[in-house]
Every structure is written in C-alpha cells, then in structure tokens.
Amino acid sequence: MSVELKIPQLGESISEAVIGKWLKQEGDAVAADEPLVDLETDKVSVQLPAPSAGVLGKQLFAVGATVKVGDVIGSVTEGVGKPAAPVAAPVAAATKPVAAPVAPPVAPQATKPAVVSNGGHASMPTPSHASPTVRKALREGAAPASNGRGPVPDEVVALSPLRKKIAERLVEAQHTAAILTTFNEVDMTAVMALRAKYQDEFVAKHGVKLGFMSFFVKACVESLKDWPGLNAEMRGTDVVYKKSYHFGIAVGSGRGLVVPVVRDVDQMGLADVEKEIARLAGRAKDNKLTLDELTGGTFTITNGGIYGSMMSTPLLNMPQTGILGMHNIVKRPMVVGDQIVVRPMMYVALSYDHRVVDGREAVSFLVGVKERIEAPERVLLHV
User: What is the pTM assigned to this prediction?
Assistant: First the structure.
C-alpha cells in the first residue's frame, strides 16, 4: 500500500511552488510527519511532511521543478527502507606509503564549456567584446590578469528556485499592472519631538520602542478610508474594495526581504502595531514565518530608509493596488513662513495601479499621509 505525496493548498493567491530540495532519497526509510521535501514559493519556504511511515518511493519531480497545488510529487509505501551506506574503516598500511607526485597548479577554468580547436586542443570560447590581451590569454588557456593583481575568472551562480519565483512575480507585476509612482516630502519634526518626549515612558509601559512605522501605519489607515481604491485588488475585470486593513510590512530576514502581514491595523493602537511588527520581524529573522503570516495583505509599507535609501519607486505587492515607500530622514533647509530653517525631512513614494486608482486619488492619499505625520495628533483623533 502506498500513500501519495500531494502539494497541499499553500495559502491565499499561491497556486504553485518550486521543489527546493529533497530531504530524503528514493528508498530511504521515513517516519510519519518527517519532512521529505522543501517547497519554495515567492513568499516563504515550507516543508512537506511524510503522510505515514514507510519508504520514500520514486521522486516524480526534480529539484528546481515547478509544481502546482494538487500535483502528486511522489509516494510513501509500506516497508523498511534501505540502511545507511556503511562507512569504510581505514586500513593500516603495511609499508610506508610513497608520496604521490604533486601536479603543478592548474589555472582556474572559465565557467563556459571548453571547445575543441582545429588542432585538437581544448580552448575557451573568446568573447567578441574582449580586449586583445584577454582574447590572447583565453586562446592560450590562461586566465587573464587584471592590473597585476592575479586572475579574475568570473563567477556564475544559478538563481535559487526562490529567487527565480520572486523574479517571475516581479516581472508579472510590471507586465500586468499599470504601475505609476507619485512622490512627496514629509517634515518629521513633530513626530520626532513626540517620540523624544515620551520614548522612555512608552518603553517602560509597553516593552517596545515607539518607532516611525506605527505612525505611518495609522496615517495610511486614515488616508485609505478617504481613498479606498488603494486598499483594493484586481480580480480579472473586477475591482475588490477591501473592508479590512491588513498591512504588509517589509522586513529583512535570513532569506532576504519578506512582507509579513499585520492584521486589522485600524483596530490597533501605536503600541500594538509596534509589538506585532517586532514579533513578525523576529520570526522573519529566524525563518519561522508561516504562510498565514505572509498572506492576506491589503496594502504594503516598505522602509528603504533603514538601509540609507533617499528615494525609490517601490514595486506593487500584487494583487494589491498600493504600496508606500518610506526613506531616510535628512536635515535640509526648508522655507517655513518667510524664514529658512533646518528641518528633518523624509521623501515618501506611493506606487499604485493606474487601472484602479487615478492620479488625483494617489496624490491626495499621499498628501493625507503627509498631513497626518506632520500633525500626529490627527492620527490619534482619527481625522
């Protein structure tokens, strides 16, 4: 009797995955619920457990293959698996071994396969754009040198299945949505003063720092209520206006940038938002995020400022219609009234799907965020 290994439902809007790594080989003994294969999606990596104890049958898909929800990728059959390969014990030499001749060092080979020249000797293909010196060195089978600092053969590394999937989604977003970006600048003086005044008390009471992100989250919620097209998604030819506010917050992880979702942010206070972001960021760094924590977002915020970015054009997190990009805070001379004063300023960017959102709506949304950050009491008063 055998039990099929099927790709389960992986989460909302995820219909396929990539075989990242087989953790067991054909004929290996497996225990019930023991992880058999790593599945990688554009959101997270998950492990498919064994449905029962037994022996892993034929692997129907190789590493790197794309599989869909419901596909059968193998099976587990009853029986006892093959034992581990024996490790050979070292044999003592009867006589003193004779040292083998040492071969001269071999120059590093380029990553492209060798071709055979008319003379029957292996040589490397010569790029047409290479300099005469490099082309001569390649013809002679030597690695070219660079400024006397030694050989510089290029390194070619294949994209991981996860990066391939992310790349596909990014290209899909640009080919599917009509993405435009609008910019504005925000005077951070009031928020910074508020944080400086109450930071110690906030930490003592809530056990977490009062950051900028919670203010932007709450400002975006209020602005989305005025411009609901940015809290929506496209489904075929229909627009779905979301009535909940589940924000994807981009954070760094051991596998790169991920976007866990903070749910019902409209019902949370600043402390609750900060706590949940900290919790999800910790799980992201430990690679412990679940699919449920990565799906279901209605709007996204990304903060390139923590890496030093001054300005960028964030890419939509499909199928969402809006994403806000925060950036670093820089002191700049600004005209306030009739005087030039130094103020901490941040550029903000909103990318939006022009199929759903007009330019007037996008600009007005971003102005609403700006006004609420510059007067943070409006966030607390929900105006």
Answer: 0.71
